[in-house]
Amino acid sequence: MPQNKLSNKPPKVMTWKGAAPILIVAALFDAVRLMFEMFWFFGPALAAIYCTVKASSAVGALGGLTAFICSLAAGAGGFAGAPAIETFGVIMAMATGFAGWLIVGGWIVMTNSRIFKENASSVALFGASLLVSEVPIVGSLPAISVITWRLYHTQIKKDKTTLQKYEADQVAVQTQQQQQQTVQLMQAQAIGQARTEQEDFEEEEAANEPIPVSVPEFGSASVKQSPSPKLATVPNYT
Asked: Which of 35, 48, 167, 231 has the fewest Cβ atoms surrounding its Cβ within 10 A?
């Protein structure tokens, strides 16, 4: 049951827009690691491209011939040095995977530690990405970016549910407050109406009461005394 007050701070919500930078960084590390995992192919190819660019700028019109020669030289060098190139690629792929795991993991901890605090399986899942990225051949899979995407997908889904519950609670609290205010207003109106009716009744009763007639008291100044009769005097004939 929602409390009878509104929270001023909505819950934190992660969005795909906020997760995009770290996902891009994770994908870049996976791409570089994939290149080193297949360095037996990308190494000679990059050498051939570099040779072609340099030779073409030097000889000018013979660019097509120089590209062909550089490709042959790169292919021969790649075939001859395949074991060393492949070993170098595996070592660099492992180093790149470990560096990417540290950087992406540190980024998550500094900017969004909730992803590990609120989801107990996130730590184990992210640790598994390191194991996958350090295994030769299997490490060509985009483990860091895929697992990072999975972690943010879980958090975004959970945050969305939390936000929906928060908004529903806010609506319920607002509705409850409005109902309470309505009840209080109706009670105030009823009390005011009752007081008005009581005052009207008292005024009406006062108007209908008979006016008392005051009877003056005996001996008061307001009572007129009748004159006492005078006795007749008898003339004296003596």
From this structure: 231
